[in-house]
Amino acid sequence: MITDSILKEAAGRVKPSAAEADNLKNTAREIIGRIDSEAARLGFNVHAIHVGSTARDTWLRGKRDIDIFLMFPPETPREQLKLEGLQLARSVSDDYEEKYAEHPYISAIYKGFDVDLVPCFNVPDASKIQSAVDRSPFHNQYVLTHINGLNDEARLLKQFMHGVGVYGSELRTQGFSGYLAELLIIRYGSFLDTVKAGANFYRGLVIDVEDHMDPGVKHPEPLIVIDPVDPKRNVAAALSEQKLYEFVDACRRFQKAPSLDMFFPPPVEPVDEPELLEIIDDRGTLLLTITFRAPDIVEDTLYPQLRKAEESVVRMLELHEFKVYRSGVWSNGKRCAIVLEMLVWSLPNIERHLGPPLEQREHADRFRDKYPDAYVFGYRYAVDIPRKYPRADELIRARLTSCALGKQVSESIRQDFIVLSGTSVLSVGEGIGEFLRELLHRK
Amino acid sequence: MITDSILKEAAGRVKPSAAEADNLKNTAREIIGRIDSEAARLGFNVHAIHVGSTARDTWLRGKRDIDIFLMFPPETPREQLKLEGLQLARSVSDDYEEKYAEHPYISAIYKGFDVDLVPCFNVPDASKIQSAVDRSPFHNQYVLTHINGLNDEARLLKQFMHGVGVYGSELRTQGFSGYLAELLIIRYGSFLDTVKAGANFYRGLVIDVEDHMDPGVKHPEPLIVIDPVDPKRNVAAALSEQKLYEFVDACRRFQKAPSLDMFFPPPVEPVDEPELLEIIDDRGTLLLTITFRAPDIVEDTLYPQLRKAEESVVRMLELHEFKVYRSGVWSNGKRCAIVLEMLVWSLPNIERHLGPPLEQREHADRFRDKYPDAYVFGYRYAVDIPRKYPRADELIRARLTSCALGKQVSESIRQDFIVLSGTSVLSVGEGIGEFLRELLHRK
Q1: Both A293 and A356 in a single domain?
Q2: Does the residue A6 lie in any domain?
Q3: Which of A168, A185, A220, B222 has a Cα-to-Cα distance from B263 of 20 to 30 A?
């Protein structure tokens, strides 16, 4: 059957070769050995463990990430964990940088692998965690003991999610995390059964593998997958409604017409200028682009700010009676852009300025004094005045900095921003053409 | 003082001369005499009375209306009242026509007066009325016994309301009735005190002269004036919020700058083509006019239908993403018009066609099959399709007859209607220029 052969082919492509797997596991063991002996040498009560998809044998071929956690006794003072943790972690490789999540950790290059070395508290169970990272070893443990040989099914699901654009729980994507994909496989038993179930996922669905959810915790998110190691936590908290339903749609499409392309889509072709001209001409809309230097912050900070800025701009435009057909945010690390496809971007010279209700006599009298042409409009005064911003781009230029924007995005916009019309959006930077193809749903 | 001299001048202009008053009252007595003797001759147990503003001495100079009611015993069968009433009424003048309210009556010309001859039941009190007209003699009685010489103050108020455009409780105006004006004078004691009170009228205000309102009856109207002869009835039921506040505004303006012009405004100058061109040019809006033959119905039936049609058209336009800045309805008895000042009247070639929520799988699948370019839009499918009506006038031409319109307006529109753009609105008929000046608040 066609599905079988597609799955076989896909599985073959996503499973690491024996050599790759051996190499990775040997490397991880080496690192653990180094940490453990260094700890012994220094007299620290610490040992290292390997976590993450490469530890659980659910990683996708070619991925070269190793996550090593340095397990400190739970009573260790935080300051000591930080100091000793970093000291141990730095001993692995000279090629490293210090990063920071809830506390600092080391990201090193070792024998061609990206190795994250993360100090954490070795708590007795997940309800006792002192830091968010302390949960990871429990996740690891849970998957290792429950996946029961379905590792390749998890790989298929991850690759499928990747191919259809919903994989990744970082705030840029707002999609499915690797751990979430693994839990779905554990829950549904196979890739195909997950697709079958996923085709009918809906807002508010609760998946509670361990049947232990805490009824006192309300989860407002579109999909609720109760963490097997923490009854209060929704593993799918980062998943947006849009990505949930893109996954549902993808599952249905796969059921209807399975294809290898859904796992390994051809690269997105950037939209070029002639094509963009043709699109705009056909549609008759106006592309407006606000672009500015990307602030020097991680994507998980940047994207929420970009989305906030996008929302503010759209709200401002619609308050001023312009109409936005669709919008999106983009960054390539150097520049950012808010792209707006406008349905109404130019308006007549007048606008109605609504005055106070006549019932508020003092205000109403003042309004009438100020505007001799005021008229009664229902229960209020109103007056026709010259429209201050008859064009959307003028409004943006004049008022963008007064919109609610995230901190760093706001700082960047205050320094400088440019409003571009039409095809000049293509000049904002590398990768914008691919973004536009997806934004405009142009196949 | 300036107000005094304005009021004196206005009072002098609105009070009928002694000769006019004598002539009218003598004529009314003559008619009553004719009816009564004819009734005696025919052996009917009926007598006539004079009601309305000419009976209450609150009519405005030059008004030549006489309302005569034919009082039948309350136990008279309706059929008998109709037959005998018309028979008596026809005896007054050969120059008459039969009209119809709740039951038939006669409108006659007699010695240059317009005489309405209305049969009614002579019930013992207003709570026993069998027909709406039976209430009029009680209104008459109430005003006669309570106005206490304030007749000329009532005349001033009526003329003021007329001058500022809020007088008349018919459904064309939705303003103040004569009886309502008289009650306000009775309540507040003078024209100036009514203006003082009126300047602070507000939605939901209850004026209950007899302090007898029935708390079981809810009045949703903007102003509630409890009928002194019927605790359940709101005398101001026909008054719209717009007219209430136009009156409030006028009272305030009069307080601030009293002027004879507010009683006797100069005639409204029609807008002519050069001025209209200039207005449209200045504002940058588009005037769209839908015009059709006026159906052969009374204004009280016509205007609610025109307003309903206006509302439907505006709703249809806004559903299709056009924007109406203001609108109004007009008729001169021959033609009707719905005039729309458009803020957005032309739109790009695409529109978003929203599909079903993905949760409704069957519908969603059918949608996706039908539209291969469908995309996920939040929790629904959507697709960009060619906009069917990129221009407001095309939409109106294609879909007006499918709007909810009143019965006779709908019939007329189904026969034929025309959509005009810009200054060609001036061609729809006599009186449109005056209407446009007021619609556009053009002084």
Answers
A1: no
A2: no
A3: B222
| Shortest Cα distance, chain A CAs vs residue B322, angstroms | 10
What is the per-residue pLDDT for B132?
87
Nearest chain A residue (CA) to B200: A359
pLDDT > 70: percent of chain B: 100
* A18, A72: one domain: yes
Q: What is the DSSP letter of A186?
A: H
d(CA B50, CA B115): 10
Evaluate whether A177 touches A168 at the Cβ level (below 8 Å): yes
- Identify whether residues B207 and B238 lie together within a single domain: yes
pLDDT-derived band of residue A1, with 50, 70 and 90 as boundaries? Answer: low
Quote the CA–CA distance of A311 and A96 in Å, as a whole number: 38
Cβ of B199 within 8 Å of Cβ of A365? The answer is no
DSSP code, position B48: E
Nearest neighbour of A344 by CB, restricted to B241, B245, B344: B344
Q: Give the domain extent around B217.
A: 147-266
Q: How many CA atoms lie within 13 A of A96 on its CB side?
A: 21
Residues of A in contact with B200 (CB under 8 A): 361
d(CA A365, CA B249) in angstroms, rounded, equals: 9
Name the residue among B252, B347, B379 with its Cβ closest to that of A245. B379
Q: Which of B64, B133, B73 is nearest to B104 (CA)?
A: B133
In a domain, A138, yes or no: no
Residue B29 pLDDT greater than 80, yes or no: yes
3-state secondary structure B248-305: HHHHHHHHHCCCHHHCCCCCCCCCCHHHHHHHHHHHCCEEEEEEEECCCCCHHHHHHH
pLDDT single digits (tens) B247-282: 999 999 999 999 999 999 999 999 999 999 999 999
Co-location of A161 and A249 in the same domain: yes
- Which residues of B313-377 form beta strands (DSSP E)? 323-331, 335-344, 350-357, 375-377
Total residues belonging to chain B: 443
Calpha distance B382→B375 (Å, rounded) = 5
Q: Contact B47/B39 with Cβ under 8 angstroms?
A: yes
Which residue in chain B has the smallest CA separation from A348? B284
Q: Among residues A302, A303, A324, A306, which one has the least CA distance to residue A315? A: A324
Last residue of a domain, one of B242, B266, B290: B266
Nearest residue to B88 via CA among B115, B59, B53: B115
Are residues B203 and A359 in contact, defined by beta-carbon separation less than 8 angstroms?
Answer: yes
Q: According to DSSP H, which parts of B114-177 are helical?
A: 136-146, 151-163
Judge whether B22 is annotated as a binding position. Answer: no
Contact criterion met (CB < 8 Å) for B283 and A348: yes
The residues, any chain, with a CB within 8 Å of residue A312's CB and separated by 6 or more, are: A403, A404, A405
A323 vs B contacts (CB less than 8 Å): 321, 344
A103 and A235 co-located in one domain: no
Residue B343 covered by a domain: yes
- Chain B nearest-CA distance from A190, in A, is 22
Buried-state track A385-399, b at ≥16 Cβ within 10 A, e below 16 = eebebbebbebbeee
Cα→Cα distances A86→A27, A39, A297, A298, B309, Å: 20, 12, 23, 21, 76
Q: Which one of B245, B358, B364 has the shortest CB-CB distance to A376? A: B245
| pLDDT digits 0-9 by tens, B321-331 | 999 999 999 99
Among A205, A253, A342, A344, the strongest candidate for a mutation testing the B interface, having the largest count of B CBs within 10 A, is A344
Residue A434 sits in a domain whose CATH number is 3.30.70.590
CA pseudo-torsion sign B318, B322, B327, B329? negative
Give B-chain residues touching A328 at CB under 8 angstroms. none
